[in-house]
Amino acid sequence: MKRKKIALTFLFFLGLSTISNAQTPARPDIQHSSLEMDSILKQGEEYDLIKPLVGNWKVVQTIYSRDGKTVSQDTFKVQRKMVGNFLQEIMRPIVETANSFTRISYLNYNRTNLRWEYIVLDTRFPIMMFETSTTHQLTKDKSIHLYLDAFILPPFFGKEYAGMLTKEHRVITFKNNDTYIHEQYWTMPASKEFLAIKYVFTRQ
Fold first, then answer.
1. Pairing mode, if any, of strands 143-152 and 55-64?
2. CATH domain 41-203 topology
3. Chain centroid, CA 46 distance in Å
């Protein structure tokens, strides 16, 4: 009888231990992140590239065909300012009319995942573009590479291409404090990557 009581007591405490273990998170570090707001909001050396871009600029936008020919070229005005950790850029026509477009973008460095991020909102083609880098590092020519796995192709190249799911690779090059370049490379289905749009920014 005594052995039976000992066995029952052992089973009782074993059951409590099993229940307790089941309720304990397997990865407590996931539940209790070490990130703090001061760390997230800190502007590191990446912002030595971003902050000098604040101000008024003009930009020449060139659209290319798949074979490298110029489709169109236009010049617009750009205003940039810091909004928290985001570089806000607002692009509009130099002479605004009732049908003028507004292109707003935000560039930032995300310290939580060590990646560059770029968001575009353009009234000419109202689909939000959210692009991210695969690494935090700059290339030797002070460029960052951002990627978008799929977006709907605008009707730039005719009805037969409009609406296709297309990949984008954006290269942002920090030439100097007065010159800044964006190059958008697109990859259409069953096609090679090509330079589709180039923006050359010059400080005013």
1. unpaired
2. Lipocalin (2.40.128)
3. 15
